[in-house]
Design a protein that fits this description.
By secondary structure, this protein is an all-alpha fold. The chain has helices at 49-60, 66-82, 86-101, 107-123, 129-145, 162-176, 179-192, 198-214, 218-231, 238-251, 258-293. It is built from 11 helices and no strands. The protein is globular, with a radius of gyration of 19 Å.
Length: 295
Amino acid sequence: MAGLEAGPSAEAGCEAEKEHGSGVGGLPVPGDQDALPVVALDDGGQCRADTGEVRALALAGVGGDHQLRAHVMGSMSHLANHLGQPYQAITLARQGQEQLRAGAPNPHLEARMLALEARGHAALPGADSSACARLLLRAERILEADAPPTEEISPWVNGFDAGSLASEAARCMRHLGDLGQARLQAERVITLRPGHRTRSRAFGQLALVTVLIAQGEIDHACAIATDTLVATHTLGSYLVIDQLIQVQQRLQPYQGSPAVAEFLDCLQDAVRNRLPFYQLLAADQQDHHGGREGM
């Protein structure tokens, strides 16, 4: 990617859109990226992810859809990364690539598998920055080539574009401690995600906020965090509010700043108003899945 090189020089810095919905019987609708295995991940229900993986793999085996199987492996890799299991994330991403080789190529899905594998390498103990950089560069070149798929794209699989790759790259750079590259990639996400892509744009903004705090640009971080808070006031995303709470924790040492004090007051009000809804949603999802398991 721009500013990244594979090799020794990379040592210093080497949801995917998840706007969830549901279909008939609680199954995800076609094109609902990552909803298959990451069941209820965005309502805080990580404990149900294993059940979701089993259901997703069973569904993926129906009809011999190799793109869907690869997508499921990618979503499981995403979840493993989220849960701090980088070795498993790498293995699953590679299995996704193997699934893709079983049929006609899907370049965008291949780029996603490479980016998820890169993220696993970045999170390893003693992070493998060279491998991370090589994988991100491969993913970028595949997207830049813009080769059309040679078969019809599975209706269950969403696209993976330059904005998606920038989001994964920002995560990698933060793991590797390269704040300059993390900032560039987070800014790229914001540039590539228009205002109506509220959720994915918010993740880019919050990634940037985290970097700005680490770089000591506290007022700038508060300004962007406030914009994100306002833009997401009607968004039903537990992960967004969870990341805002993480921002709150990172800003605690700077409470003497007027900008921080003002933002924390606004955030406290927002959390007070939003959390009951997310807790109710999580309880409803728990009842729904518990009821299905008992049938």
